[in-house]
Amino acid sequence: MLRIFVIIGGLLVILFILYGPIPSLLTRLFKFFSIHTVSINNQKRIALTFDDGPHPVYTTLLLDLLQSHSIKATFFVLGSEAEKYPAIIKRIHEDGHLIGIHNYKHKCNWFLSPKHLNNQIEKTASIIKKITNSDAIYYRPPWGLVSLPLLFQKKLKIILWSVMANDWSSKKGSEGIYSLLLNQTKPGAIILLHDNGDTFGADEDAPIHTIKALERFIGYCLQNQYQFVRIDH
Hints:
Keywords: Hydrolase, Membrane, Metal-binding, Transmembrane, Transmembrane helix. The protein is α/β, with parallel strands linked by helices.
């Protein structure tokens, strides 16, 4: 009997690894089935992307900053937050930014059934469509973790990143974020940032440090002839 339990347990572990960790390894480490950079065409192009919003305070401050420099970015939104703040989603769209899907709730795809995952995506896409009258075809999985069903779907383009600012934590402050961005950014970079700190593992006030760091980083980039683009440019 114990042997049967061990065999069953081993099979379940193997199935779990095939369902979650292996697909994530393929997309993040080997960059299969996913996009990590933007095309540069001999220009110094980079893309700012923001996850977990919208937030009633931080997203608005961020939009004001981007607008002041005529910069376009990409926002991967949670459907549950988009439902609460449709006016912010509408502004993101009207300001000329791209809106992508980040699930309805910030849940790990490894623990979602194919049906539950599809519901998370379709519900969020429907909310975005209702507010903006535009179809969302770009998807960033929470924590960048994909599962097997995402590798076989054909509707969405999976967008990951080449620069991660670790800005979900307040620990390094704006100076630490700015330093990391400065050291890691190069032409073609897709930069992962956050405009909401109300998700699991994040610090609630973290986005204010992101915004302060961006004020300096944007200035540096513009002085050095970088162009900010949406990931669909």
